[in-house]
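I hope you will forgive my troubling you with a question about protein structure. The matter concerns a single protein, recorded as an amino acid sequence and a row of backbone structure tokens. Please examine both parts with care and let me know of anything in them that strikes you as inconsistent. Thank you for your consideration; the sequence and its tokens are set out here:
***
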Amino acid sequence: MKKLGRLPEAARRVEVSRNILPHTGREAGPDRKTSLYGAALSYARLGYPVLPLAPGEKRPHPRLAPQGLKGATAESATLEAWWRAEPRAGVGVLPPASVLVLDVDTPEGLPRLLGEHPGLEGAPRQRTPKGGAHLFLRLPEGLEGALSATVRRLEGVDLRGMGRAYLVAAPTRLGDGRTYAWEVPLVPPEELPPVPEALLLRLLPPPPPPPREAVLGASPRRLRGLLGAYAERVAAAPQGQRHNTLIAYARAAGGLLPHGLDPGEAEEVLVRAALQAGLPEREARAAVRWGLEAGSRNPLPLDPGPRWGVAQRASSWTAGEAFWAKAHYEEQNPWRGDEGKPQWR
């Protein structure tokens, strides 16, 4: 199958906003001047896989796309075949994993969101038939997969795209005649504005607090002990939760940097833990770096008062001892166990 080539930036930006398809020299197939097929090709050229929708509806076409969003593609021959079979099919787009789309439900929701995060004003924006909007943004490297489409941490806003949720796209017309329209033209994924950090922190789960027994101040050994405990949680994270767990504990470790924790040590310990959990190194390192940087701007409060017992003994563990003990001891968490003593298998 042939994929569509990329156009110069100016041409790519104009295509979708005006629903114009440049002449390709091929006269067979659906009329390239029709807005639906032309828009489908334009989205594909921008880098957004497309799927056909049932005429007048939001659902994937049951005959042309029986597998739903799994059938989304940018292959020109497939798109031609779909719109040859059903010229009235609506256009759905599946933003890739790096693209977050904020689906604002109501007309009043958009001004509120823009007021809270003015940096969103210039983001590609599509107006929906109900007066809401779709805002397209780029996730930071390492955070692909960190957000779920089921998360609702912003009032009246759903999370879409990210390779997991498609959107109805202009110029699709619903059965009652209402349409979608671009207010700020769409651009390729790599050219989208990044998600503002303040907004991203609202969407991600908060970092975990220090273990209760370990809130003992900020001595170097105690900081390393906390880092080791965080690494254990990352290494033990089950599949499906590894990415979010890594980001959460990287942010928590970042909150220790202002207290004196070495950022290089923190990065290496957490990346090693992520590798043990099964994450690829590049993905893990990007996520850790983002989490450490974000967390460093929100120092974790550490109680300076000494407390004795289990945690006091545990605080003598270095990060390396706390993490690598997993290979030799049954009890892997320095903040738990029989008075903090490791257990042999």
About this structure: Residues 220-235 form the longest helix (16 residues). Strands lie at 50-53, 90-93, 99-104, 125-127, 133-138, 157-161, 167-169, 181-184.
